[in-house]
């Protein structure tokens, strides 16, 4: 019986995915965490904790180094909220082009007998533009960005996509009407609207800063519904003051952005729909069960992807440092124990590696001795034995 602990409000659709071999929130000493936005950086992980699944794309709330050292695989659920973010961006593109927020605020504060006459006089100040024929730069065309690009193109916009890490698989999801820029500057300097959809890491933090804003068109409208820190907010305020950026829309508020007519801050609602929460919870639950029951890895953020058909009675999995002769040590130890290897697979991700060894036979005594001996190798973080 596997134990799962949840944090935050996890959609029932995800909890319902777990089979009878799983108990939910019966103990803090869990095999798996299924989480959303809870901050785990200051928490101590139980040694029993084998997997953390984050029901969402971001994982900045999880200390990856601590998890890896504990032998805990960490997963996110990329794409689970992509449609939700896409729809919000399209809504904001329409709202920004037609000055809907300012117009609605005006109407809410003006009433009385002469409102019709006054409205006819004042409404010209809210005159907007149409999206058709305007240029949108989509920075990052992965799960979210590709949907935004395709939807904007369907509205008649000219769309330029920029993503230096675009995979062949992701490219299939992008309409042939999308122009692919070879540099960030090429995408930015032509755009009437700019939206960013990249993960946050060392390379993307501050991706849209003063240098990038300087080459944008005058009057550009900027959107950050990716992660806090992708856009340099201080630089954005400077360029808003200079009227270089006309309006800035973001899901990540801070004091410097507040109480400005040219900034719209939403309270981190990009992926907050019932459907997105259900998708993330369901994908997270499936990920937990797949990893615990088969050892296969897909969409891990701290371990390499490795998927091997589980066709033997027993499977051995090891999380270990990516250093020379690890595979050799594992194979030698098994050979010395008289255990036959049916198949062996290994993959690495920077300093961490993952090995799957399939075995045709293993008795209880051999299992305990094997786990003990392998666990004593200094570079090994966790050893598991799975039985089909």
How would you describe this structure to a colleague?
- With 388 residues, this protein is an alpha/beta fold.
- The chain contains 13 helices and 16 strands.
- The chain has a 7-stranded parallel sheet with strand order 8-7-6-9-10-11-12. A 5-stranded parallel sheet has the order 2-1-3-4-5. Strands 14-15-13-16 form a 4-stranded antiparallel sheet, with helices on both faces.
- The mean pLDDT is 93.
SSE topology string? EHEEEHEHHHEHEHEHEHEHEEHEHEEHE
CATH topology of the largest domain: Rossmann fold
Number of domains: 3
Computed Rg: 26 Å
> What is the end-to-end distance?
14 Å
What is the CATH C-level name of the largest domain?
Alpha Beta
Strand runs, count: 16
Instruction: Write out the CATH superfamily name of the largest domain.
Output: NAD(P)-binding Rossmann-like Domain
Strand content: 15-25%
Name the strands of the widest sheet in spatial order. Answer: 8-7-6-9-10-11-12
EC number: 1.1.1.399, 1.1.1.95
Protein name: D-3-phosphoglycerate dehydrogenase
Catalytic activity: (R)-2-hydroxyglutarate + NAD(+) = 2-oxoglutarate + NADH + H(+); (2R)-3-phosphoglycerate + NAD(+) = 3-phosphooxypyruvate + NADH + H(+)
Pathway: Amino-acid biosynthesis; L-serine biosynthesis; L-serine from 3-phospho-D-glycerate: step 1/3
Defining traits:
alpha/beta; five-stranded parallel beta sheet; Rossmann fold; Alpha-Beta Plaits; 21% strand; 3 domains
